[in-house]
Amino acid sequence: MPVTKKNILNKLYIVFVFIALFFIAIIFKMVDIQVAHGDKYRSLSEQLTLRNDTILANKGSVFSADGSLLATSMSQYEIRMDAYTVNSEVFEKNIQSLADSLSKMLGNTPNHWEQKIRKARTHKNRYLFIARRLGYNDYMKIKHFPIFNLGMYKGGFIAEQSTVRVHPLGKVAERTIGYDDYRGAPGIEGAYRKYLRGEHGLRKKQKIAKGQWKPISDNNEKEPIDGKDIVTTIDVNIQDIAHHSLLRQLEYYNADHGCVVVMETKTGEIKAISNLGRTSKGTYYEKRNYAIYETQEPGSAFKLMSLVAALEAKVIDTGTIVDTGEGRYKMHNRFIHDSKRGGYGKISAARALEVSSNIGFARLIDENFGKNPDAFISLLKKMHLHQKLGLPIKGEGTPTIPAPGDKKWSKNALPSIAYGYNLELTPLQTLTFYNAIANDGEMVKPKFVKEIRSWNNQVETFGKTVIDPQICSKSTIKKVREILKNVVVRGTGKKLYSKNFSMAGKTGTARTEYWMKDWETNRRYVSSFTGYFPAENPKYSCIVVISKPKVQKGYYGADVSGPVFKDIAQKIYTSSHIINKINGIEPDFESVKTNFERYYSIINKGVKAIPNVKGMAGMDAISLLENLGLKVIFQGNGKVIEQSIPEGQKIVKGTAIKLKLA
Predict the structure, then answer these.
(1) Cβ neighbours for 116, distance < 8 A, ≥ 6 positions apart
(2) pTM (2 decimals)?
């Protein structure tokens, strides 16, 4: 076809139409994207370039009973810089001042900081790392440095806040205070996490580079709400006493681990709890919560439970005589031994507890319950010894008390249980029973938390929880409390006796891992002392358990654990206002009055001869004689028992008279 002007115009027309249709299609697609599917694509874009980051709420704090901080959250800050966004004139004018300020706070030379920031600016780095883990005070300082004081958009200042959990008192009661993080949620922090956690906030960030996100404003999308505070029952002073007393004893005996718990008798409030385990380097720290989780054979500490059960069943009385022989007795083809060589012979049931006779308790229980062991086990269960305490803190050990028909049951099971073997309890479960004896039979649940608070306002309070209002009769309580007092006065705990303050309790020495082949050559014991003080009107109960002390240094309860109990009791006595009454020092007002009247009558007679001052209070006699013009020399203190110049001699002023006082 010949090329004509008409043909060329037709082709141009076709091209123009095609181009027009193409542009119409593009415009249509743009309208379709922006209008019909705009929300979808905008959302997709935001998902790729924007995100909401969680701002962790500050957890509530944990306080002791007296308001001391046990655990709290502190803000920490990571500082970065958008080095590219800063105006050139502002940058050049202030970069040296900024570098100087950073050098003074964070170290390194001013030149180091200037070169680092300039290099970042050249490479258009909008997320340059400056520092991390800054406290609030340092954050406020760095925020006001040159350039940074212009804020995020003009000064490139980026601050990201996070929180860190701290324990102001260090490792004290750490396992009981606990934590709630990647390690788990033990202790109070785990048990009360719903109160402590608060509500997290949100902050929108924009993607500025691969793996780098920058906040798009200074404001949060949703502000975090801080958690509530927990007020515990812990008394910091008692806790300090218990912790250091236990630590000293563990170190001296090179023991594997140990625990101590101090409980307020009436309320069940835990005033102190320390759990220390040995490291490979021989130091001790809060390794596990042994008081709550570790079940073990309680040994002689359980003899109290056996005695209470037998008294309640009325099969014996405290005066019932049992023959313990010469310290070695065969029962059901197995020998039982007492710690005293030669034995205790025939003794009462009360004395059997005082001296902790294994033979005595094995015979008392086996001979009275051997034909019906279920009756004995039922009495133990009636006193809740087979049940968990139901603590809010997780990890409580499960007590085990076998009964006829169980795999662990045999002819020897009953006499073994009688003196604390073939069953398991945790230290806190044992203490709860002893506390009930001290509390006139009322068994209360151990309590770790008193109240929940928010901004100093009470949110929830936790009162006393009674497990059993009366675990046994009042008459039984009265009898066993007298015996427990005598354990310290004249029994296995007599080394702990003090005339200055009264204690009551029971020593415990239990073999552990005795089923292992090496036990005969490497003997291991668990030493304990459980009791309360003062003995007459108990205010606190306490248990001390020390596992695997070095045998060469000692392993009996009275030697290893008992001194810790005494140290705690003694220090609480001397520091507590509840026990500050001193007996027997009331002045004899009648004798004072008589002495004064005698002194007054002599001084008003116009005396010319030496008076008889024997029997007078020393200070009165001295005052009287000096007023008569004599020079008094005295020796001793108290009342006058001798005077060097006898009664009736003429007074010569300035004469020396010697008095002997006593």
Answers:
(1) 128
(2) 0.72
